[in-house]
Amino acid sequence: MGTFEKGYLGGFSGKVGTAVGSSWKKLNVLRSNPPSKRKGQPTEQQLERQARFSLITAFLRPLTDLLNLTYSKSAAALMTGFNKAFSVNSEAVAGVFPAFTVDYPKILLSKGSLPNASAPVAVSTVAGKLAFTWGDNSGINSAAMSDLVYVAAYNDDLKHWIFMQNAATRNAAGFVLDVTPFSGKIAQTYIGFMTADRKKFAPSVYTGQVNIL
């Protein structure tokens, strides 16, 4: 049973209803009573949901800064861009529990109404380099020469991303990303576009699995 001192708003110790009072460094501390632990073992469905959540969260987390930008306009109030990105990509999972893998072609690093460039491609013809090329469609609909390009590559063996947020402008029609750590490995590759003021975004494009020289 809790004991009160100096009235209702004064310090107290022990448990009173759902509140727990204690003293810490000569300060009276009030906290809520922690919820009781779940009884029994989690169900197969709960374990499967947790595995999906953990897989996509770990996959996207290194891109937090990028996703907070690219999903900033589509995120609801009090939601971060990263949280919105997780929501959009939460079902991009392949395989059967517990052997889940990321379904790379389904991943969207950005969403929006800005036009993509024409036929973006990613190849590796020089050791440690990943070359992105695309058709410059500036002036068509709302596509502009000044639109910014971001590129990204992921290697599953290393569980590592390499990306460039402001890689080039749309009219450059190409950019070479240094992916030296991925030499001799496979990279999953993506490209996306945003306006120069970073207010509009295009849906990212999966440019395929590339063997890095």
List the helices and strands and how they pair.
Blueprint: E1 3-4, E2 12-16, E3 19-24, E4 27-32, H1 44-60, H2 64-70, H3 81-89, E5 93-96, E6 99-102, E7 118-123, E8 129-135, E9 148-155, E10 160-169, E11 174-178, E12 186-194, E13 205-211
Antiparallel strand pairs: 1-2, 2-3, 3-4, 5-6, 7-8, 8-11, 9-10, 9-12, 12-13
Q: Can you offer a commentary on this structure?
A:
- The chain has 213 residues and is of the alpha+beta class.
- It has a single domain, classed as Immunoglobulins (Immunoglobulin-like, Sandwich).
- It has three helices and 13 strands, in the order E-E-E-E-H-H-H-E-E-E-E-E-E-E-E-E.
- It has a four-stranded antiparallel beta sheet with strand order 1-2-3-4, with no helix packed on it. Strands 10-9-12-13 form a four-stranded antiparallel beta sheet, with no helix packed on it.
- The longest helix has 17 residues, at 44-60.
Give the low-pLDDT segments: none
Strand content: 35-45%
Straight-line distance between termini: 69 Å
Spatial strand sequence of the major β-sheet: 1-2-3-4
Nearest-integer average pLDDT: 89
Radius of gyration: 24 Å
- The DSSP helix count reads 3
Helix content: 10-25%
Number of domains: 1
Return the CATH architecture. Answer: Sandwich
Summarize the structure.
The chain has 213 residues and is of the alpha+beta class. It has one domain: Immunoglobulins (Immunoglobulin-like, Sandwich), CATH 2.60.40. 15% of the residues lie in helices and 37% in strands.
